[in-house]
Protein 1
Amino acid sequence: MKPRIFKIDPYNIDHDLLKQAVAILHNRGLVAFPTETVYGLGANALDPRASAGIFEAKERPLDDPLIVHISEKDDLYRLTKEVPTKIQKLIDLFWPGPLTVVLEKTDLVPDIVTTGLMTVAVRMPRNSIARKFIELAGVPIAAPSANIFGRPSPTTAKHVLNDLKGKIDVILDGGRTEIGVESTVVKFQDGKVVVLRPGGVDIEDLQSVAGDVTLASETSDLANSPGKYPQHYSPSAKVVIVGNDSRQSEKVLLSAWEMKSYGLSVGILAKQEHADKYRKFKVKVLGPQNDARTCATRLFHMLREFDAKNVDVIISEAISEKGIGLAVMNRLRKAAGPADALR
Ligand code: TXA
Ligand code: MG
């Protein structure tokens, strides 16, 4: 059965529609909802059977824990044991917003939500629909991104529908998401804030509040964390990345002509400044090279658009890893998979 789609105006929220969605949620239903990062697939986080449904719908491995979403900061203290001062400072500044904190969990959090870990990931989103929905639900909401596991995360209700129709009950359609890549996930270890996944909050901004912030390497101690699956966020097409240097567009063209000569259909994901050079190919603009925020908003959307055009390979230009550019490049590298090797 097709999910019911409730169109919600984020500036003038229809509470009756949200209450209908809440009733379905409390009946162990799955409700997709917009956040400022990407769409989430929500279930009652305090109900293990409801949360189990998320794994089934997404075809998500049972060892990949969910993020628990709350509507007020105080809810954090019921779900977690101790909040270190540095993490508290980050919360004070970046909540509500695209920051997820991993902390030791209390017994209130069912094991399935954390896939048996002693820790739980918590986030308070700032999207008005998400906030109101969680508030009306009166319970925390477990929600991963609302895509089939491994696919690019959804930034529109249509993306959710494409991946999950027949498997979920409701989609709250609040339009395109603002940030376009997922939240920054942090934990506290040995007195330091460690970033497990770069995302909507820039590392530079975390550093200005919490001092020394380290980025967990994508190869080291990331068991049970976001870097665990080397291939992720992938469209059906193969993704190839071309390094961000002065010969970038030359190298893109060389690769594109070479692949075309093998009979492959080529799509190029380009910086706005370079797009004209690639006229002979299917080209999509990621964004201006000095505007990583725009690139972030468009990334997953463009990967899905290339899939709709049935290209065999997407050649993507790398962008600078400053600010949210780090998250953009993290997602692009995962989309390319373990063997991507920058060209
Ligand atoms: O922006 C976002 O974070 C979106 C929206 C919907 O809030 N959600 C999202 O969820 O991206 P998901 O499930 O696609 O990614 C959550 C990541 C997972 O890769 C998981 O490994 C990590 O957070 N995570 C969850 N609980 C964890 C824990 N206890 N320890 C370490 N990592 C954890
Ligand atoms: Mg995800």
Protein 2
Amino acid sequence: MAKRTPLISGNWKMHHDHLEAIRVMQKLNFRLPLDAYKTVDVSVHPPFTDLRALQTLIDVDEMSIILGAQHCHWEDKGAFTGEVSPAFLKKLNVSLVIAGHSERRELFHETDEMVNKKVLAILKHEMTPILCCGETLDEREANEADAKVQAQVTAGLNGVAPGDVARLVIAYEPIWAIGTGRTATAADAQAMCKIVRDTVKNVGGSDAAAGVRVQYGGSVKPANIKELMEMPDIDGALVGGASLDPDEFAAIVTY
Ligand code: PGA
């Protein structure tokens, strides 16, 4: 079976104000040959305050880079001080929204139920969720990684129509590999991404499993991307630290 079109996403986390974001984006666009987009989708997920500037830049310079967000609320509007509506993101031409990144789960206490509500809200507004899952080091050492990931994916997809599951992106990110310089081996990453796909099959059926794109994330660098991308169940990468530098991120995209 032909592999799905890979998606390589840069998660800037809380880095780059809107002026830095413009510079980084211009450099990234310059570094990426037009041919690159024929074989890979590329998205950038800046902080909320950068979105409007990057939307305009993408539009004016006719860039092929896809605009993404890192998070959103599940309600369209209301008394939720500090939160951002998925409807507002849609208005900014955001196409991909990360839901349930481990930093949101750990630092901001997002539960599986909240993540599921976000996934449904993102889909409702015709954007694509990047649903994140992954185990801690303790869970891995206790042989609980498979069960953790199965549970997170199953909960995240609750109530999602099978046709929608097929166009979803799921990022498997072992927490011990995020920002640590420690990557899962390509074989381990493949094994876990296969578990993600098998879980999708249980929830949404074979077509959903064949269509869903599974990213690996956790210290992805120019030096390890090729090996990861050769794995049959890895369809891309969610890149944090290495996406901040346009040269490094371009090297990853053009692996
Ligand atoms: P990292 O972050 O590439 O810096 O490990 C990945 C992520 O948090 O998505």
Protein 3
Amino acid sequence: MQSKTATLRIDDKEIALPVMIGTEGEKAVDARKLRQDTGYIFYDQGYGNTGSCESAVTYLDGDNGILRHRGYPIEQLAEHSEFVETAYLVIYGELPTQEQRKNFGNLLRENAHVETQMQRLFEGFPKDAPPMAILSSLVGALAAYYPQLATNNFEKDLQQFDLAAAIAISKIRTLGAMIYRHTRGLPFMHPKDLPFCDNFLHLMFSEPYQEYVSIPEVTQALNLILLMHSDHEQNCSTSTVRMVGSSGANLFTSLAAGVNALSGPLHGGANVAVMQMLQSIHDEGDDGTRFIAAAKSGSKGNRLMGFGHAVYKNFDPRARVIGKACGVVLNKLGKSDPLLDIAQNLEQAALKDDYFISRKLYPNVDFYSGIIFRALGIPTNMFTVMFAIGRSPGWIANWREVASNAKGRIYRPRQIFVGSPKRDYVPMAKRS
Ligand code: ACO
């Protein structure tokens, strides 16, 4: 992969740093020896210019709005694939054969249930607990229920990895539905012999006295939206999973850390904030002008939620697909949603505004996803849990890259210390 070198001149010393080129022509200066050779580090707050790893999972070109999983464009996967197939692709690197797809589906079904003992953990959570707080605790708890799989070394027994991955994906889905029912005081439903998304809808919406009847349009929309979230390169939660995994932590523990990272309003929590913003615009009878004006003030607390992206400086391709799907899904379900009109008008207004144009701020995946979740009957406080269900394959694939890298090092960034220089301890009596 190394073809040429970059030269750095510092303190009258010249050092050659190898250059790395990725398969899509991405360029990097390999700075691994920089500190050792010069005493300097690169300062890159937020890591926006730092490649923390080599990865073969997802390719993202934010300037041109390109997203590919294992080489396949997201638009093609959205049109032809479904969530479970894409999950397989993301984790294992290839589209499954018919037999592989069947076996993977079976493994997911066999591991859909949550142990009776583990179900009791729900009793300790208040009904109004934030769903993501419950989810992260329970995903972490999987390590306690599957101690034989709580390892970072599956290379001798890959079937054990298959099992751990299926447990994670299937149970995060089941736990998501259980959290919904817990927070509503509804009894848990048992998983059935159903495809992944239908099983989720059953776990969410069946009642002891009335089975949920699958609506193909709903299943299809759920499949699409989960697929659209399945991976997204080195985003905050995926990097967190990799960071935790690099310490040798097991898959479930690393995934719990990913769930926590996802919960923040600048990451997965943005889909909740978008709905709250659209709802306020609706309730105030405003046309969005107030929110756009506030967003332009530059204050972090007033950002236009669902707009902008750390990497995309162009349309987020997922926002295009989901934005289009909103109208189609609502149409198919014979529903209308005033928030969709508000979102579309807000998008148009922002895209004409110099503030957003000059900063290359476009709608991101979260801008429209909530409209679809709402149409499916999923309440706003569950949106980030839905994101976590969708993102689980990407987290697993990235964790595995770290765990199976025999030459991998623990992730350990450096810092520039800006605190007090050395000083001597002052006894309590002498402190002013
Ligand atoms: N509304 C108003 N201004 C914004 C917004 C926004 N949504 N996003 C960025 N800006 C401004 C910044 O304040 C900055 O302005 P300045 O140059 O005058 O200082 C400029 O645009 C450039 O910001 P970036 O450096 O591109 O933003 P950054 O990479 O730090 O943050 C982030 C990216 C966190 C996604 C940001 O755009 C944001 O807060 N968006 C709203 C929250 C959101 O939708 N998050 C979901 C992201 S997608 C995901 O995680 C699944």
